[in-house]
Design brief:
Structural class: mainly beta
Shape: globular
Strand order of the largest sheet: 17-18-20-23-33-36-42-45-43-38-34-31-21-19
Helix content: under 10%
Low-confidence stretches: 1-13, 16-22
Oligomer: single chain
Distance between the termini: 72 Å
Number of strands: 49
Largest sheet: 14 strands, parallel, barrel
Mean pLDDT: 90
Radius of gyration: 25 Å
Number of helices: 2
């Protein structure tokens, strides 16, 4: 019996005609036909409840597992709270319908929220019904007339795929050290759109021969994660959501961003003020999986106010743990009182949700990145922004950054480990990153940036404090071509990858890096560029800068390039080649 049939036997009538029980502040979903642990699709029943909510209602999921075949959507509400059971008996929202044998698999968000204010989500677990990536151990490499290959023994938990392993559509192959650090000996992306997935031979129930030109770089005992052709929208998508609190949420696995925050053009509310407490993204303890989230853990593309994350944990991510930014545009045309803004990434006129009436835009020189002044938006339409006062010295080709649509950022007492890219990528005016622990990730632990070269993300840093963090074994493997991209375990740049270091002092301002412990990291422990006002004090640096991959910069524990008003003092060094370099 399907869930919808169950409703037609009486409860659906109650919901549609009476709805008296839902006038209460707390709505127990099981009282309206949503039954956990029965294997039925709960999506339609729950969507009906969400559609009938009143401002201030609370939705309670008693302990158990609730199945969803597609997204739940909530829009236009205020003061809603969604929560699960506390204690040992947990409430799990389970996404279903993943098919790893299809070459065109996508999934919607588990929960998409638009145009809402004062939202609380707490005490929930998130999972998928089938693994969206599988992994195993390299037991050998070789060469045959068909090419070079490696032999992979998969974990027993992936035996559900055993009958059709040779048909798997593998989108990405990534190698790891035995300790779980992604090492980029293999990082192969496949063109599945045109049917170019890797050739696989099944040797036994859980043993595969996978052909890969990079196979000779592997050694026995290394680990391989095979990310399948399963992708989709963020698990939680927040568009035009103001004042959001999430706490005690655990996500075991998801094939895209875990959380995405941005604005919405036609909305009463603009995204602003997000607080995260005890958000966990990690493989399930009963699993041997290497990857939990296939992309960024938390990706903020546009919001105002303050973003705060405390006591969160990120393990085995496919990209950055936290990435905070807004979109950087270029000026395509200037008239008497308006500018045409071009999306630096798409090269098209910027979207209508880029900025709003009364927002402040900061203009940056297109060559130096230095500020040229600010202006308030009076009117916007299809990339054309009418301003109250245009700075006289701006030119076509200069950058425009959303001064009021990038949040202040606070990241405290969080942990990041065993992830494929970087820890925290922060492109905010005001930043505090303190007392975090970051280890065994392939890229920099902390990157402050304003990407003016490839991703066109904003904005420049006006004040940052990076203090009391412990960073170990980071920045050794994330490469652009043959060069490490990080430059430092803590890096300040104007681009994410290679480059982004040649802008003059003053693009970023007032950065303090103090009392951090940094050990066993490639290139510099601390690399700061393009900054006016740098304090680097009382940091403990051990066994860094001993693996130079960047000419002139890699042999210094601390390196400063194009910086002025610098204070470097009272740092401790152990097992480093050179202490402090400056250009």
């Amino acid at each position: 019996m399907t869930r919808l049939t169950f409703f037609t036997l009486g409860i659906l009538v109650q919901l549609l005609l009476g709805w008296t029980d839902l006038s209460a502040k707390i709505i127990n979903v099981t009282q309206f036909g949503v039954l956990p642990d029965d294997g039925q699709d709960d999506r339609q029943a729950l969507q009906l409840i969400l559609d009938r909510l009143q401002d201030g209602d609370k939705i309670y999921f008693p302990a158990g597992t609730y199945a969803f075949s597609s997204a739940l959507r909530l829009s236009g509400k205020m003061g809603i709270e969604i929560y699960g059971s506390l204690g040992k008996n947990t409430s799990t929202l389970m996404a279903t319908g993943f098919d790893p044998f299809s070459s065109n698999v996508s999934w919607t968000s588990l929960l998409e929220i638009r145009d809402c204010k004062d939202l609380i989500i707490r005490d929930l677990f998130i999972d998928v019904d089938r693994p969206v990536s599988i992994n195993g151990t390299v037991v050998g490499t070789g060469e045959s007339p068909e090419g070079t290959f490696y032999v992979l023994d998969l974990l027993p938990e992936f035996s559900e795929y055993a009958d059709r392993l040779a048909e798997l559509k593998i989108m990405h192959q990534l190698s790891y050290n035995a300790d779980g650090t992604p090492n980029y000996h293999i990082s192969t992306h496949c063109d599945l759109k045109n049917g170019n997935w890797p050739h696989i031979e099944k040797l036994s129930a859980l043993r595969l021969k996978i052909y890969n030109d990079e196979a000779p770089k592997l050694s026995k005992g290394e680990l391989i994660n095979l990310r399948l052709k399963i992708t989709g929208n963020p698990c939680f998508s927040f568009l035009g959501v103001n004042t959001l609190t999430m706490r005690d949420i655990t996500i075991w696995q998801w094939p895209a961003f875990a959380m995405y925050v941005s604005d919405l053009a036609d909305s009463r509310h603009r995204s602003g003020d997000m607080t995260l407490e005890r958000i966990l993204m990690k493989p399930k303890p009963t699993s041997g999986r290497l990857m939990s989230i296939s992309a960024d853990g938390i990706h903020v593309a546009s919001m105002a106010g303050t973003f705060k994350a405390e006591h969160c944990e990120f393990v085995g991510l496919g990209d950055d743990a936290i990435n905070i930014h807004s979109r950087l545009c270029t000026i395509g045309k200037i008239s008497a009182d308006s500018v045409l803004l071009i999306n630096g990434w798409t090269k098209a006129p910027v979207e209508d949700d880029w900025a709003f009436k009364d927002d402040i835009i900061e203009f940056l020189d297109g060559k130096t990145g230095l500020s040229k002044g600010k202006a308030k938006v009076r009117f916007r339409d299809k990339g054309q922004y009418q301003l109250q006062s245009i700075p006289k010295n701006i030119n076509v080709g200069d950058f425009a950054a959303k001064d009021t649509r990038t949040p202040s950022t606070i990241i405290r007492s969080c942990m990041v480990s065993n992830s494929r890219a970087r820890g925290f990528v922060v492109q905010s005016k005001k930043v505090v990153i303190s007392n975090n622990k970051i280890w065994n990730i392939s890229g920099p632990a902390i990157l402050l940036s304003c990407d003016m070269e490839r991703w066109f993300e904003a904005t420049t840093v006006k004040k940052a404090i990076i203090m009391g963090n412990r960073i170990d074994n980071c920045g050794k493997y994330l490469r652009w071509g043959d060069t490490l991209t990080g430059y430092g375990a803590i890096a300040v740049k104007t681009g994410h990858e290679i480059g982004g270091i040649d802008k003059p002092a003053g693009v970023h301002q007032n950065i303090t890096i103090q009392a951090n412990v940094i050990s066993d990291c490639a290139n510099s422990a601390i690399f700061v560029s393009s900054t006016d006002g740098v304090k680097i004090r009382k940091n403990d640096i051990e066994n860094c800068s001993n693996r130079s991959s960047i000419p002139y910069y890699g042999n210094y524990a601390i390196y400063l390039k194009n910086c002025i008003n610098v204070d470097v003092a009272d740092n401790m060094f152990s097992e480093v080649k050179e202490l402090v370099g400056r250009d």
